[in-house]
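Fold this: Metallophosphoesterase
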Amino acid sequence: MNKKWLPFKSEKEDVVIKKHSLKLLRQPHAEPLKVIHISDLHLGFHYSYDDLIYHIQIINDLHPDLIIISGDLFDNIDYYQNPEHLIPLLKTLKAPLGVFFSYGNHDQRIHQTPRINRILSASHIQLLTNTGVLLNYDSEPIFLGGLDDVINSKGNVYQTLKNRPEDMMTMMIVHEPDYADFVEQFGIDLQFSGHSHGGQIRIPLLGAPVRPQLGRKYVRGLYKVGKMTLHVSPGLGTTHLPIRLFCPPEITLFNIK
């Protein structure tokens, strides 16, 4: 795979695969839990079927146990003459513990969530909106929660966690990363976020001059927020302008021990 990337526009072949190891599981395991985190594809805004095919192939070749999509899967669903044609592609995402998604601000603001919900359901992608599920990894229970979007909707941590058993590894999907300052008080081990696009346009020595609401403090990569680990994905797509500068798209693989 060609990892070289043009500074003024990242093409689909320029995606970076970044790997992290974390110690969060409560029980010993022969193999780590492999979690793929992606975000912000912005389907409908300069993100093509070919881009989706290419990125799904990379993800499946990594053989994850679990796939997390932390919002803004869609941008302008009407861009596609028949958005339901995305279903056969999205169905090819493979992970034995499932593929999970929570809404971002762009998903919500296009006001087509019923249609998006039908596409997700037909694609075997489980939508988490202020709810959580129990996963079983090698006989260890794991709680995965997902907030609805915080900016354009009604993300509710209390509702999401109301059925969580005590003393259990807990992961949370929250589109906006800066909300971690509130979420960390609830005993979350790992929060998956996107939204910021890593800045999308970064200037050497200065960083990202433009940062979105609730994506200004935590911009990309790993952070420690209290006792919680936060990961902010730079995303796979772009927003507003189809340009990335010193900020290539990323697929992140976690080996959780």
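The first helix runs from residue 49 to 61. The radius of gyration is 17 Å.
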